[in-house]
Structures are given as structure tokens and as C-alpha cells.
Amino acid sequence: MSAVILAEFSDGKVSKTTAELATLAARTGDVTAVVLGNSQMAAQILAGPIKKVIAVDNADVLAYGVAAAVDALAAVIAQESPKVLLIASSAFGKELAGRLAVRTNSGLITDAVDVAADATATQLVFGGSTTVHSKVSHGISIITVRPNSVDPDLTPATPEVSTLTSPTSATSQLAKITSTQAPVKGGRPELTEAQIVVSGGRGTNGDFTPVETFADLLGGAVGASRAATDAGWYPHSMQVGQTGKTVSPQLYVACGISGAIQHRAGMQTSKVIVAINKDPEAPIFEVADFGVVGDLFAVLPQASEGIKARKS
Ligand SMILES: Cc1cc2nc3c(=O)[nH]c(=O)nc-3n(C[C@H](O)[C@H](O)[C@H](O)COP(=O)(O)OP(=O)(O)OC[C@H]3O[C@@H](n4cnc5c(N)ncnc54)[C@H](O)[C@@H]3O)c2cc1C
């Protein structure tokens, strides 16, 4: 079998998700990575089990968005005839995958957390309480994969790079992107890419200062529970969980978060989980490697002081 993945870029740099997709795709066959961009971007693909990179240098992808991206990927599919196509489970990725499934008359599975050698996908549903295994039975197995679901194989890659020109159809040009605004970013790492994530919940009572101070001292990202984002205390883009982002950092610190199943669905694969909660019965302690029963407004400042003292 041959597999195609769509390479992911963040701020012009190839993201870890690309190697994650390649790792899963390599179980099913030889991997070709598609870069919707120029050959300089393609040249960044230096890790992961990737045999070939195809750069589709098409400025229309910026102008016409997902519709032009569908045309570009459809051209690659026509050339490569893959059996499997893996795309990251972002909002863009899922819309692209859905449109491609219609275009190629293929089955689609979204939000997979694993893909087996025979392209059987694993999904966690009902907040992670139920595992579903399913397989596409018609056309190409188009699967979107949640970031951070697998340890990426980062062995150096020396793929053969080629370019493909693909015209954007007149239909895809009907809706044009007239302006875009980059999200305002602080100095913190991207939530889904961060090695350390410190999250705050309803227990912060809206004051994320100790959570942010602690995260900054550790060079980590700040996340939040849905209770905190629904209350307007933190942006929805920082929500961790079933309806938010999936994170799998080396260290996850949950502060004032009870550990509802929907929150756990987005962080339970973290390597080390630390929970700070004043309720010793809070369910978050069931998944925590280390727990502190206490008030986060007392525990976090002390922990921050300890880290400052070690750094000085
Ligand atoms: C379909 C669906 C999807 C959902 N998706 C998500 C999702 O993606 N992400 C998500 O997070 N939730 C999600 N939820 C909501 C989820 O069920 C919980 O309601 C939510 O996670 C609770 O957030 P919390 O832990 O911050 O608040 P709470 O459950 O209210 O817990 C607050 C915790 O803080 C502790 N606390 C209070 N004060 C302090 C203090 N000073 N110091 C230390 N500890 C303190 C309390 O003991 C308590 O354990 C979803 C729910 C549904 C139905």
C-alpha cells in the first residue's frame, strides 16, 4: 500500500504533527508527504519515515483556502493513487478531508488516535470512555488524526522532493479570502506542541496569574478547562479536552481542575501528570502521577519561589 500525508506547518516551520502522521502512515505503506507550499518548505521535511515529498506550489491555496487545497490534494491523489490519506485533525484538516472524501467517493474517519497496518483507525468517543475501531470500506481510507496521539519517529529523512503544478478550478475560486489576521501570540509555546503545559480550571476563580507565572518559569504553555473558558476567564483556543485541544506533553500540571472525563480525554496521555486540588477526592488524582492537596493560590507561588531559587 502507499500512503499520503498532508504536512503541517506552523509559523512557516514544519510541525511535529507531520512526523506523527508519517509514523502512523508508515505502518500502512510507503509514505509521501504533500506540502501545500514551495520547495523551501518541502526542504524542511528532514525527519520521519517519509520516502517522498511533493510540493504543490500554488498561491491559490492562500487566496481561495480549503477549496484550492482540495484541488491540490486531488491532483496528488490522481498522480499517486494512495490507499491511505492522513491529515491532522484541525478544523481546516477536517473540512479538507470531508471535501476530499466527497470528491474521491471515499470513506472518512475523523479524530483518530491510532491507525493500524491495515488502516483500521482507533477513535476515543464519549469523552474517552469508549474505544471504537473502524475501517473505511470504500475508496481511499481518508483519516484525520488528533495531534499528539503517537510518539513520532524522528529518524532523519532524506526524501526525494518533486513539485506538482495544479490549477485551481473555477468553482473553487468562487469564494476568495480577502483578508486574514494572525492570532495574537505571547511568548509562550504553542499549546499542542509544548513540552510542559500548566492548566487552570474553575478553582482559579478567574485569576490565572499564579498559573501563568508558574508556566512561564517552566517555559511552558498555559491551558484551561472548559469551565474556565466558558466563564470567559481564558480563550477557548486554550481549552484542553474532548471539545478542546489534545495535549501530550512531558509534564502536565492541572491546577484547580476536578478531572472530568471530558478534560481527561485531552490530557491523559501526558507523560507525567501533576494535580493541585484542595479536594482530596477530586477525580484528577486518579490519573495524576503526583498530587498536591492544597489551595493553588498557596501551592503555586511556593512552587514558583522554589523554581526561582533553583535557577538563581
Ligand atoms: C460534551 C461535553 C464536552 C466537554 N468538553 C470539555 C473539554 O474539552 N474540556 C474540559 O475541561 N471540560 C469539558 N467538558 C466539561 C467537563 O464535564 C467539566 O464540566 C469541566 O472540565 C470542569 O472544569 P473544572 O475542572 O475546571 O471545574 P470543576 O469541575 O468545577 O472543578 C474545579 C476544581 O477546582 C478545585 N478547586 C477549587 N478551588 C481551588 C483552589 N483554590 N485550589 C485548588 N483547587 C481548587 C475543586 O476542588 C474542583 O475539583 C465537557 C462537557 C461536555 C458535556
UniProtKB/TrEMBL annotation:
Domain named Electron transfer flavoprotein alpha/beta-subunit N-terminal: residues: 3-186
Keyword Electron transport on entry: yes
SMART domains from the UniProt entry: ETF (SM00893)
Species in which this protein is naturally found: freshwater metagenome
GO biological process: fatty acid beta-oxidation using acyl-CoA dehydrogenase
Keywords for this protein: Electron transport, FAD, Flavoprotein, Transport
Family under the similarity heading: Belongs to the ETF alpha-subunit/FixB family.
Protein known as: Unannotated protein
Molecular function (Gene Ontology), one example: electron transfer activity
